[in-house]
Amino acid sequence: MAVSRVHIVDKNFVDFVQGWNEATGFDSLEIPITRSEILGLFESQMTSRLLDFAARSLKDKNQAYYTIGSSGHEGNAALGLLIGEQDPCFLHYRSGAFMVEHLKKDPSARILEAMVMAFCASSKDPVSGGRHKVFGSKRLWVPPQTSTIASHLPKAVGLAMALERSKRLKLELSLEKNTIVMCSFGDASVNHSTAQGAINAACWAAYQKIPVPILFVCEDNGLGISVKSPKNWVMNSIQNRPGLFYFNANGLDLFETVAVSKQAIDTCRKKRQPVFLHLDMVRLLGHAGSDVESEYMSKSELEQMDIKDPLHVSAARILSQGWLSKDKILSFYQKKKLEIEEVCNDVIHKPRLQSATQITKALAPFDKERTDQEASRGNYKIQDLESDGAIKPRHMAMLLNYGLKDLLTKYKEALVFGEDVGKKGGVYHVTTGLQDTFGAGRVFNTLLDEQTILGLAIGAAHIGFLPIPEIQYLAYVHNAEDQLRGEAASLQFFSNGQFQNPMIVRIASFGYQKGFGGHFHNDNSIGALRDIPGLVLGAPSRGDDAVGMLRYMMAMAKINGSVGCFLEPIALYMTKDLYSDHDGLWSFEYPQPEFFVPLGEPRIYFENAKDILLISYANGAYFCLRVAKELSKLGYDVSIIDLRWLSPLPLEAVLEHAK
After folding, report:
1. pLDDT tens digits for 39-82?
2. What is the CA 415 to chain-centroid distance, rounded?
C-alpha cells in the first residue's frame, strides 16, 4: 500500500517552520511590491496547498472527482497578483495559487467555496456549473478550459493578435488598449506540436513587426507525468527564438519570481511583443491522486523534491525578514486547514447536475426566433450587386463570393482569413476581390498552419470578432481538429455559457477530380467533425442554398455564439449545368436579402413522389437529381432529400418524408 504523500508534505512544512533558524535564512532581495502584498502571496500559497490536500481527501471519500493539484507550483501566485484584471489568462491546470491570489481582485468572489465546489462538481460552481473542475472568472477574464497538451496556446496567440487588430480597425471591443494575454503550461507541453506552432506563430508575426502582446509562462517541474524533461532543454530550445523575449526565474523562490515576473510583464506590455517566462518549479504529490510516483522515482529522488518545496522557501524568506513569527505562520496554516474542512463539509451537500439535459444545456444554446430575425436582417439591396452581375444565374463559387461580401458589409466585426485568401482570392477564387474591398485588416493571409488558423479564430472571437477562417481542404482539418473539439466547441459548456467564441470555419471539401491529390485533397471524412458535441455542420449542394446557409450560420454565431463548419463541395464550385452541357440548370440567381436556410431544414425535390426516396448531400445530392431523371425514364417516381445540414441531422424531416 502506497504511503500518503499528503501526510509527508504536510508534516514536512510544519517541521520546517518549527525547526527554522537564522542559519537557514536568505540574503535580502529587492522586490517591486510591498510587504503586505508578499504576505498575501504567501497566504495564497498555503491556501492553495491546503486545497490540494482537501481535494485528495474528498476523492478518497468519493465526494470529489479531480485531484490534479498545484503543489510545488505555488510560485504562480506572483502572477496572480501582477497580472491585471483585464488581462485574459489561459491557465495551466496547476494554477491553484494563481487563482486564489487573482480572485482577491474580485470582492464578490467566495474563493474557498468556489474552489471546493469545482472539486465536487456542484451545480453551484460559479465557473462551469458543475460540469468539470476548471479555473475561470468572467469578471477577471479567465476563460475556463481543460487543455492538457497546450491546446490553449493557439487561441491565446490569436487573442493577442486580435487585440492589436481591433485597434487598427477602430472597433469598440471589450478590453483595454494596454491589455496583454497570458497563457501558462508545463515543460512537457512545450514539446507538443500545438505549443511549437503557437510559439512559432507569435514569433513569425513579431518578426514582421506585427504586435503580439502575449506572455508565455512555462512552469517547469522537470516531469511530464513520469517522463523526465532533458536538463536545460526548455531554455536552450526557446531562448534564442527570433522576436521572443526570454526570462528565467527560480519559481521556488517567491521573491525572485515576483521580481522577474514583473520585468517580463512590463516588457510584454510596453514592447507589445511575445515574452517567454520560464519558471523552474517542482511537482509534489504526483501528477494526480492515482499517480504512484514510487513506480518511476526512487525514494531519494522524492526526498530531494520534498526539500525544494516552495512553501519552505517562502516561509524562510519571510522569517528572515522578521515579517512573521513561526507561530503566526503555523497558526494561519492550521486555521486555514480547519476553515477549508468546514467549507468541504458544507459543499458536499450542495446539489449536482442530475440529468443529461441539465449537463448539455450550456453546450450549444439556440434561440431560433432571434436567429431567424438576425438572418433575415439584410443591410444591402440586391441592386447593389448589379455591377457585379449578381442578378444573373451564377455558379456556387461566385455566389459564395457575393455572400461573403454581404456578410463583411453587414458585420463590421467579421474577419476572413486563411492561407491564400488575400490577393490570390483562395485556391478556388471564392474570396477574390474581398481584400481589395475591405482591406488587409479584415481579409488577410495567414502562415501555413491549420492549428494557428483556428487558434486565431478562437482568440479573436473571445473579444467580439466574428471570424470566418478558411481551411484549404477538408483533409487539412484533421491536422487541427482538436482546436474545434477540445477548445472552440467546448467553451460555452465549460464556462456555463459565460464565454463564447463564435465562428464559421469554411472548408473546401469532398472528392472533386480524378487522378490528382489523392488522400490529401479528395477527402470525404466528416465523421471526426460529426463527433464534436455542439458543432454545427453544413454542406450545401447549390449556390443559392450556400448563401442562405452561410447567412444562417453567421446569425447563429452572432446570436448564440455557435461554432460551425461549412463544407463547400469543390466539385460543385464551378458547376453550371445539371443534366447536359450548357443547360445552365445548376446556376442560380443571388438570393434576396431576406432569404435564409434555417438550421435542420433540408431541401426536398419532388416531394409527392411515391416509389423511391433518395437521401444525400453536397455532391451526392447533385448526382441524385441526375439519377432521378434516368429512373423516371424507367417509370419510377423519385423523391430526393438534400440534407444540407449534417450536424445536427434533420432526422425528423427525413422520417416524415420516408413515410
Report:
1. 999 999 999 999 999 999 999 999 988 888 999 999 999 999 99
2. 18
For the chain, the maximum distance between any two Cα atoms, rounded to a whole number of angstroms, is 101
Around 541, how many Cα atoms within 13 Å sit in the side-chain half-sphere? 26
Distance of CA 356 to the CA centre of its chain: 23
Q: What is the predicted pLDDT for the residue at 153?
A: 97
Distance CA 494, CA 85 (A): 21
Residue 105: predicted pLDDT? 97
Nearest to 372 by CA among 565, 649, 601, 599: 599
> Which entry of 152, 395, 521, 582 is annotated as an active-site residue?
521
Cell 504567501 -> residue: 42
Q: Can you tell me the distance from the alpha carbon of 457 to that of 166, in angstroms, rounded to the nearest whole number? A: 13
Return the bridge partners of 352, or none. Answer: 122
pLDDT at position 1, please? Answer: 42
Location of C-alpha cell 473539439: 485
According to DSSP, residue 122 is labeled B
| Residue type present at position 418 | G
Query: What does DSSP assign to residue 519?
Result: G
User: What's the sign of the alpha-carbon dihedral 444, 445, 447, 449?
Assistant: positive
Which residue intervals of 120-250 are DSSP H helices? 153-168, 193-207, 233-238
> What is the average per-residue pLDDT within 442-457?
96
Q: With bands split at pLDDT 50, 70 and 90, how would you rate the model's confidence at 515?
A: low
- 339 — pLDDT class (breaks 50, 70, 90): very high
Burial status of residue 88 (CB atoms within 10 A of its CB: 0-12, 13-18, 19 or more) = buried
Is 521 part of the annotated catalytic residue set? yes
What is the pTM (predicted TM-score) of this model?
Answer: 0.94
Over the range 321-353, which residues count as b (16 or more CB within 10 Å of their CB) and which as e?
Answer: eeebeeeebbebbeebbeebeebbeebbebeeb
71/282 Cα distance (integer angstroms): 8
